[in-house]
Structures are given as C-alpha cells and as structure tokens.
Design goal:
Layout: H1 10-24, H2 30-52, H3 56-69, H4 74-86, H5 90-109, H6 118-129, H7 133-146, H8 151-158, H9 161-165, H10 169-174
Helix pairs in contact: 2-3, 3-4, 4-5, 5-6, 6-7
Length: 181
C-alpha cells in the first residue's frame, strides 16, 4: 500500500486543509452561491417547459444539471424523481426522491420550521411517493401535536390526509409505491 506524504509543518498542514476544503466546496463565496442558484432556477424553468412538452429526456437532463448546481433544493429533486418515473426509470427516481426527502428533513429540523409545517407536509408526501406509507401516516399523526391549529395541517387532515393523497391520480402517476407505476 502506498503511503501519502502528509506535510509536517503547520503551514503545510494548513495549505493541505485549505486545499481539501476548496475541493469539497466548503466556503463557497456568496456571490458564487447566488449565481449557481439563479442558474438552477433558469434550468428548472427550462425543465418545466420540457415537461409540458412531455419531453422526459430533456427535462431529466436539465433537472439533473439544476440539482448539481443547487443540491439543497428538494423541489428540484422531486421534479427529477417524477420525471424519471414518467420516463420509466424507477431506480433513478427512487434516488432522487430519497435526496428530496433528506432535504425536507433538514428543512424540517431548521428553527424556522418549528412554526411552518411545509417541510413536514412535503416529507409526508415524499415518503408516500417512495411507497413508505406507514412512515408517512406516522409522521402525519404527529402534525396536530407539532402544529396545533395551523390551517395547512387542518386542511390536510380534514381532506383525508395520507389516505386521500395516495388516491389522487396525479400522485399515483409519479408514485413508486402504493398503487403507483
């Protein structure tokens, strides 16, 4: 096994650490982050156009580029997953849905989400898209306790919650489980 030389000096270790951080994207400047987010947004609009034309290959390619630019956007991952389902690529769709779920979980853990049920509602939807219905129901059962009297939670519960969601034709068209494709 070959040994990698590790710098012994403090300056050498610092330069190595900075190089590794630069390769991993740590410390990306705000202007670059903003540029990447804007470009991802433009690609998302282009993908929406391709989806309207039912050009799944073009939409998938465009959304894949958008997720590379802005990997923290769960909505892009959901769109990529649903596009892949429509294109018959279920394994790749599952991967995209799982990445969306991770993004929603992170958003749900954020301080602002303590009063906003949006990320949790999207987690429920994504779990259901993945066919993980018992987990979606369990999370939905926590909604009233976590977001007492929030109008979106009340509307979700009153409309039938997860059971109603999985019966909707638009949902079934892009779902991997629970009666989906």
């Amino acid at each position: 096994m070959a040994r990698t030389a590790v710098p012994r000096s403090r300056r050498g270790r610092l330069l190595l650490a900075l190089g590794i951080a630069g390769l991993s994207g740590c410390g990306e400047n705000p202007a670059e982050q903003s540029r990447r987010a804007r470009e991802a947004e433009l690609l998302a609009a282009e993908a929406a156009f391709a989806i309207n034309l039912r050009d799944w290959a073009r939409a998938e390619q465009t959304l894949a580029r958008a997720t590379e630019l802005d990997p923290g956007r769960a909505d892009l991952w959901l769109s990529l997953g649903s596009t892949r389902v429509r294109a018959g690529r279920k394994t790749e769709a599952r991967e995209a849905y799982l990445k969306a779920l991770r993004c929603f979980e992170q958003a749900g853990d954020a301080a602002a989400a303590k009063s906003d049920p949006g990320p949790t509602l999207e987690q429920i939807r994504t779990l259901a898209l993945l066919g993980r219905i018992p987990e979606a129901r369990s999370l939905a059962a926590e909604l009233p306790r976590r977001f007492a009297s929030h109008p979106r939670v009340r509307a979700f519960s009153e409309s039938g919650g997860v059971d109603q969601l999985v019966q909707e034709p638009a949902f079934r068209e892009i779902a991997l489980g629970a009666g989906g494709r």
